[in-house]
Specification:
heterodimer, A: mainly beta, Dna Ligase, domain 1, 2 domains, 1 helix, elongated, B: mainly alpha, 3-stranded antiparallel sheet, 20 helices, single-stranded DNA binding (chain A), single-stranded RNA binding (chain A), DNA-directed RNA polymerase subunit (chain A)
Amino acid sequence: MFFHIVLERNMQLHPRHFGRHLRDNLVAKLVKDVEGTCSGRHGFVVAITGIENVGKGLIRDGTGFVTFPVKYQCVVFRPFKGEILEAVVTMVNKMGFFAEAGPVQIFVSNHLIPDDMEFQSGDMPNYTTSDGSVKIQKDSEVRLKIIGTRVDATEIFCIGTIKDDFLGVINDPVTS
Amino acid sequence: MSVEPFNRLVKLAARAFYDDITTKGDNQPKTGRSDNRGIAVVVLDALTRRQWVREEDLAKDLKLHSKQLRRTLRFFEEEKLVTRDHRRETAKGAKIYSAAIAATGDGQQTKEGDEKIKLHTHSYCCLDYAQIYDVVRYRLHRMKKKLKDELEDKNTVQEYICPNCGKRYNALDALRLISMEDEYFHCESCNGELVAESDKLASQEIGDGDDNARRRRREKLKDMLQKMEVQLKPLMDQLSRVKDLPVPEFGSLQAWEARANAAGRAANGDSNANDSSKSSQGLGFGGTPMPFVGETKVEVAFSGVGVKEEDSKSEIANASLKVLPPWMIKEGMNLTKEQRGEIKQESKMGSSSAPLGSSDDKKSTTNKDEEKNLQDEYVKAYYAAILKRQQEQEEAAKKQLELSNAHISNSVLGTSSNRQVGMKSKRDEDEGDDDFEWEEAPTAGNKSESFKVNDLNVQADASGDDEDDIDWEEG
């Protein structure tokens, strides 16, 4: 699920950036540092949408670096148990398949794949129904349900299932 | 209060779930002689024929050793099938119980026993039918859920185990376990190939998680579920039969004793049982003098109930045509008088003063009515003023509209003549037009007032009173 929230971060800025573009530099550095990171608490920071305020800087003794407390608005993505996601399959193996929904990795183990789909090894490993009408392979798009999340301080990993109503392949990979 | 269906339930449950329960510890060798399976059923059956029973007596009746019985009963207490009560009592205190027993049967009162003041701890037990009903239902539910979940592999996190070092992983570790060389998961410590592990009922003998095994497992589970349905059918039937019956409730030991004694006394018509229960309070009950616990009744009398009832009655009288609050009423709505709440006043006055008998009450209510009338009038005047204001605003807004939005077609203006500010803003949203509700805000004079008026209109809108307008919006 996506959230638009306000976060705060202490930014250290090198003295060489002090000048007319101090604020721009600060924001650029913030975007570079924060976007794409993951915190277990808030999830993945997708994008910074604005700066709420920049507090008073504090000059560090010895280094000359200045610490600014910056409040910024950002869009975060946090997967939850029970959530339905659409994801792209990245790897298929005997144990199941891995998929990605944006920054989050999801593993679907083979017992959470419908029983009528069987693993076919080979050049392009895939899961196929007996009549061959549905096929899950690399780059397929699937709709899955998250049934478990592991949230560490800096990463989130999910396991999902496609063994439920309206879950499964929604789009085959573009053949080119 | 019939106990019979509940007794049947207990018997069925006993045979279904406690048939092969043995109270012996696992460490003791089971010889044919000490094998006491089935005791549980016997004890439960015996309990269905009794209410509260002293455990020693029960042991004597069942020709069991009291220790063995106690062990069984403790087990049932843990299973929440029986309630137990322990108390230290004199021989005399124990007599209350005897008296109660005598009262439940139709026997005569026992005569005075010996008066030794020596305390013994006696235990009593009794089936707790209400809880048994819940426990059995819960047990069935859990059984079914476990099987179903397994059958559908619902929400289970697959576990993997390393056959070499026995290290266990689950699917959440999957990302760390994949190896580049092949398609299997590998153990982090010994690099062995992991196998899917499942500690489920059906897959105990089937170790590998390949497809064939999975199918077999599913079949087995399905079979199991079916068998369960068939074998527990009588129990489930009994549960559904019992569902709407009142549960036999014996209360706590003391309450039961008191009740049984009272009933016995009433039946026998003599009062010599009285003294036993009385004298026991000091000694046996350990200072809890509550012999009639089960029969306390609390009655709460509200003052001024009459007035309230009157109110609600008059409401009900014209409930078919609901009285709209004044702020909802606007021009262009065709309402009956009742809906406008004009008749309500009179009917209320008449009915409220008529049935009240005491002059004191009457005075207070008439006072109240007068007060209410005054308030109502004031409120009415207030809403009338608001309505007027709305109209003024509307006029102003219309002018504004004509000025600022010349591009809006004439038809819009024509039909919007009897429309109001709030609705316009709504239509704006619908049509995705530019938001001139912002523009007209300053013309509405006092800002907070205008906000309020808008709000009211929106509420009226929400009630969906004028449908043709809405139709027009969509068209």
